[in-house]
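In keeping with the milestone schedule agreed at the kick-off meeting, the structural modelling team has produced records for the first pair of proteins. Each record is given below as a sequence line and a structure-token line. The laboratory manager (R.T.) confirmed that both were archived under the project's standard naming scheme.
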Amino acid sequence: MSTYASALNLDAAVNGLLSLHESADDPFTLTSFPWIKLTKNDFVDPFNKRDPSGPLFDFIMETKIAMRNSYGLLVNSFYELEPSFVDYWNCEYKPKAFFIGPLCLNRSPKMEPVLHQEYCKCIQWLDQKLRQERPVLYVAFGSQA
């Protein structure tokens, strides 16, 4: 999540803005960013509810607790891109964020010939399953935790 999105979520949560509004479509102004208007619909479920709960909510709360107990947060961005939101984060929240990005290149790296052959085999296999109308379940274990 970008620093912009993180700061907006934090401001809305800290100031209880989502619980103050009944309608999901009525715009409200963020306390720390008065030039930004949002609606409850701009937030994902369950965070757009008056009393959020459920597995996603529990997971996010656990990660926030772990994050607050850490020394710092590495962010794939740079200060000049979102200075107002970086300053807000580092003044209002812990841990301090360290902006070390961008960490990715604008262009894709070239694949080694052997990797390219394996990639092509995977694509052919997926295409074959598609033609056979046989679903494929893709499971990815990410780095969020």
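The second protein of the pair:
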Amino acid sequence: MLAASGAVKQYQNAEDTRGRLVMSCMTPATDGTFISIDDEEAKQFRESVVEWLMTNHPHDCPVCEEGGNCHLQDMTVMTGHSFRRYRFTKRTHRNQDLGPFISHEMNRCIACYRCVRYYKDYADGTDLGVYGAHDNVYFGRPEDGTLESEFSGNLVEICPTGVFTDKTHSERYNRKWDMQFAPSICQQCSIGCNISPGERYGELRRIENRYNGTVNHYFLCDRGRFGYGYVNLKDRPRQPVQRRGDDFITLNAEQAMQGAADILRQSKKVIGIGSPRASH
């Protein structure tokens, strides 16, 4: 879990003992502390912060992959911000090619620093940084190229807007509210990370992390997040089969498990080909 940095200033609330606005995400809890999120001054401040964030943010929610799954959208609705006074040219950035799995749209950045803090502190990566100063900062690599960390895919969920998005989902895209999610376990290795796969029209479209405090916590490796394409292959075996001579006999799940158990019991030495995908 990332520590608070106070970069976005959306958690500034009224604190009566000091008589001024404080950053509640940066203020330690103490006895007798009273913090109000409903104070009128605090609400007006949060609305003004959203307006600042939207000064250079593109109005591309209809085509943004994170539309409907965006923290900035949630904050805009929560604060009631509905009118933007800025009518001038927005700042624009050049996007980078970050490889086959992650798309980069830097113009959507709100400079929360989540990405670089996660990448350095948790993913132990060194090739993603922040460059620039003041209101003109850039989050990316020194040059185009695939991110080196095997846990870089978590940037897709960590980013509160649509700077980093899932390319594998974009190939067969749909809004998150159109998918059905179910709890599952990753099959890519023996660790058993908890995942939440999203399905649409009988196809697996997206893999998200499912928190488990004793296994994977909040994160997944890139193999577990992006390596699901084989599930949608049309020629993938979808039922257990047994070879008898030159023929293949279809079995149900109970018959397959019983047959495998019989082979193991009757054989002193068994040689077989195993795969983490065989459980499908």
